């Protein structure tokens, strides 16, 4: 009973603060996104005439849940999450050499699209989010020969998420997903609004990547062996 009581009080207090921000038209800071269940309340305040940008959803997810990712690099005291280094990535300043993927955060943002639409909000700019840099999408491109390792030995080795081969593979996956989506739309004669990237991922690359993985390897594993704690893949 005490645990239920204090949990309820905490949620009530947080909800009240979000309502105050809504009334005054202020932007709720990071600490005010107290719990995931308040994410809708916050996002609703960010909509303009009932229209919410997909990037606003991702920004809210990254801001409120960013600290949960363990053992990540930080920049200016901020946990960067699914961001990794590659020696061939250029740039200036402290972010030089960094590649952001935010695969799980974007997956969550994509998963929120339908519930938000069902609530009456219109989500715009869905294709401003990227394809998901994960092993089903990326595995598809290796298994079908779109990407070929220069050294086949890497297929026999296990790699951590920060290994440059994995970072490069994931970056190429994101780029190839955009190219593939464009090609699919041209073949079907449809626009990006009619067949957004989310449909290409869910009904196409992820499903196909999973199927070919089971056909090529009896355990359905990806073509590259991954050492992951479940917070990246």
Descriptive overview:
Pfam families: DUF1688. This is DUF1688 family protein. It comes from Tectimicrobiota bacterium. The chain has 233 residues and is mostly helical. Among the domains are: 1-46, no CATH class; 128-226, no CATH class. It contains 8 helices and 8 strands. The protein has helices at residues 2-24, 39-46, 54-65, 103-111, 113-118, 135-143, 164-188, 197-216, and strands at 51-53, 74-75, 78-79, 83-85, 98-100, 122-124, 158-159, 225-226. Strands 1-6 form a two-stranded parallel sheet. Strand 2 and strand 3 (78-79) form a beta hairpin. Helix 6 crosses helix 7 (164-188) and helix 6 (135-143) crosses helix 8. The protein is globular, with a radius of gyration of 20 Å.
**First-to-last CA distance:** 38 Å
Order of strands, widest sheet:
1-6
Low-confidence stretches: 1-34
Continuous helix count: 8
Helix content: 40-55%
Number of strands: 8
Pfam families: DUF1688
Organism: Tectimicrobiota bacterium
Protein name: DUF1688 family protein
Short description:
This protein has 233 residues and is mainly alpha-helical.
Detail the topology: elements first, then pairings:
Blueprint: H1 2-24, H2 39-46, E1 51-53, H3 54-65, E2 74-75, E3 78-79, E4 83-85, E5 98-100, H4 103-111, H5 113-118, E6 122-124, H6 135-143, E7 158-159, H7 164-188, H8 197-216, E8 225-226
Parallel strand pairs: 1-6, 7-8
Antiparallel strand pairs: 2-3, 4-5
Helix pairs in contact: 2-3, 3-4, 6-7, 6-8, 7-8
């Amino acid at each position: 009973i005490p645990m239920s009581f204090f949990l309820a009080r905490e949620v009530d207090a947080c909800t009240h603060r979000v309502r105050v921000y809504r009334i005054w038209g202020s932007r709720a800071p990071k600490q005010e996104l107290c719990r995931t269940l308040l994410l809708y309340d916050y996002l609703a305040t960010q909509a303009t005439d009932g229209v919410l940008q997909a990037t606003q959803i991702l920004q809210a997810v990254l801001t409120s849940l960013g600290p949960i990712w363990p053992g990540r690099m930080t920049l200016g005291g901020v946990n960067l999450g699914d961001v990794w280094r590659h020696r061939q990535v250029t740039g200036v300043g402290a972010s030089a050499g960094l590649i952001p993927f935010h695969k799980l955060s974007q997956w969550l943002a994509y998963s929120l699209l339908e519930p938000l639409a069902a609530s009456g909000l219109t989500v715009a700019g869905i294709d401003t989010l990227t394809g998901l840099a994960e092993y089903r999408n990326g595995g598809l491109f290796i298994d079908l020969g779109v990407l070929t390792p220069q050294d086949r030995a890497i297929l026999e080795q296990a790699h951590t998420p920060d290994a440059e081969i994995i970072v490069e593979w994931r970056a190429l996956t994101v780029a190839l997903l955009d190219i593939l989506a464009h090609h699919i739309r041209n073949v079907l004669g449809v626009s990006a609004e009619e067949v957004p990237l989310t449909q290409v991922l869910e009904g196409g690359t992820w499903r196909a990547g999973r199927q070919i993985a089971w056909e090529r390897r009896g355990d359905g594993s990806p073509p590259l062996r991954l050492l992951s704690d479940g917070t990246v893949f």
